[in-house]
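Re-run with default settings, no changes from the original entry. Doing this only to confirm the output is reproducible before filing.
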Amino acid sequence: MEKILFVEDEKIFIDIYKEVFSQAGYEMISAIDHKEGLKLTKERRPDLIILDILIAGNGISFLEEWKKDPEISSIPVVAFSNYDDPKTKEEAFKYGVKAYLLKSDFTPQQFVKKIKTYL
């Protein structure tokens, strides 16, 4: 079973996506800030990380630390946010995210289907 780490600080999103991903046959673990996200990435070795750029502690900080750590930097990251800022998107891609997706563009089911292309 493929494992997805969802770094998100809004509990409602965690609950919704945990349900949808488990129904689709994935194990989903979650972290509420960038420090916990990095810790769980090292401990649990997910197949994919979904990162809310506006998490507490800043998603860009997560990407900076993830990129510098050879143990985890090969794990793909998809940014998933409501924040549609060109400068932030550019920075996220500079650090190596596979995609920068907007929450408003997807239903949870559409998002799961989209995420399959990054696994």
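The two ends are 12 Å apart (CA to CA). The mean pLDDT is 94.
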